[in-house]
Amino acid sequence: LDEVAEMPLGTQARLLRVLESGEFIKVGSSKVLSTDVRLVAATNLSLLKQIEKGKFREDLYYRMNTVAIQIPALRERKEDIPLLFRKFAADFSERYHSQPVQLDQGALDWLVDQPWPGNIRQLKNVAEQICVLAPTRMLRGDEILPYLPVREISGSTLPALLDGVSGSSEDWSERDLLYKVLFDLKKDMVEMKRVMGQIMEGDAPVRDSDKSIGTVITPIVESMSVSPSMSRYDEHAEVVDIEENLSLMEVEKRLIDKAIRKYAGKRRQAAAELGISERTLYRKIKEYGLEEE
Predict the structure, then answer these.
(1) Sign of the dihedral through C-alpha 203, 205, 207, 212
(2) Would you kindly state where each structural domain of the chain is located, as residue ranges?
(3) Quick one: three-class SS letters along the chain?
(4) What is the pTM of this model?
(5) CA distance 276 to 173
(6) How far lies 290's CA from each of 5, 138, 230, in Å?
(7) Quick one: which of 50, 95, 149, 205 could link to 56 by a disulfide (CB 3.0–4.6 Å)?
(8) How many Cβ atoms from other residues are within 10 Å of residue 260's Cβ?
(9) How far apart are CA 125 and CA 144, in angstroms?
(10) Beta-bridge partner residues of 25
(11) How far apart are CA 88 and CA 125, in angstroms?
(12) Rounded mean pLDDT of the chain?
């Protein structure tokens, strides 16, 4: 069983009965069948934390937890990365009838230095991509970079995770993400309002780097025809509340649409970028009708 932590509570109850009695009934049948199997289950979540949240049955956990094997993430066992890459390269060379790809020490250093959030599956995909696309069978130094996953997209307009938030994306909601976006926008607008007020009053602060310039710079606003109502920016004017002009749903829809376009429809990567689960992203896509777009 894979991803047992995602199993619905109703299914957990039925599985517990099967494990306790060794009996089950096929769908559409009334005949009770017996079975004697070895159960191997896997998950990337902490089942104890899922129990605390009420998402996993404690009795099922202790019924399944006979022999627990903790497999560390690939980034925590970097010495395995070169061995795994060579194994995958040999497999793909046999599949595609080509020579195995080899890496010099510089390229291996780049490979080992990656965080590999997708663990062995991600490394296997990279190995296959190199075997198929690399023009030569020996990659040296930074020649491997075009095939490595991008860690961070600089200049992205999508917000990062909130400070201090870690663990599963279910530990925090999309609302936190949107509130941070709105907070940043509002902060920018308040700052723009302050600067515009100083400019229109003609007393904008002069930077130290500007003091060394001998030429006197006359504010442009002095040569403009400004109406009396615009001659002075009211410091005490009420800041327009962003939430009144930009609904949370519209912001959420734009963020989701941008993430989907950014990753060319790959929902798992888009969900990771937005900090939500893939299941939540799928529900939001249907809710906003983004599939039709």
Answers:
(1) positive
(2) 4-64, 74-147, 174-205+219-288
(3) CECHHHCCHHHHHHHHHHHHHCEEECCCCCCEEECCCCCCCECCCCHHHHHHCCCCCHHHHHHHCCCCCCCCCHHHCCCHHHHHHHHHHHHHHHHCCCCCCEECHHHHHHHHCCCCCCHHHHHHHHHHHHHHHCCCCEECHHHHHHHCCCCCCCCCCCCCCCCCCCCCHHHCCHHHHHHHHHHHHHHHHHHHHHHHHHHHHCCCCCCHHHHCCCCCCCCHHHHCCCCHHHCCCCCCCCCCCHHHHCCHHHHHHHHHHHHHHHCCCCHHHHHHHHCCCHHHHHHHHHHHCCCCC
(4) 0.43
(5) 7
(6) 29, 43, 42
(7) 50
(8) 22
(9) 14
(10) 32
(11) 9
(12) 77
CA-CA-CA-CA dihedral for 63, 69, 72, 74, to nearest 10: -110
pLDDT in tens, 4-28: 999 999 999 999 999 989 898 888 9
Q: What's domain 74-147's architecture?
A: Orthogonal Bundle (1.10)
pLDDT winner (highest mean) among 76-80, 153-157, 168-172, 248-252: 76-80
Using one digit for the tens of pLDDT, what is the confidence trace for 114-172? 999 989 999 999 999 999 999 999 999 989 999 998 764 444 444 444 444 444 444 44
pLDDT band for position 178 (50/70/90)? low
Angle, helix 248-262 to helix 174-201, in steps of 10 degrees: 100
CA distance 111 to 57: 40
Mean pLDDT of 258-267: 85
Q: Which of 112, 105, 111, 103 is nearest to 138 (CA)?
A: 103
Q: Letter for the amino acid at 224?
A: M
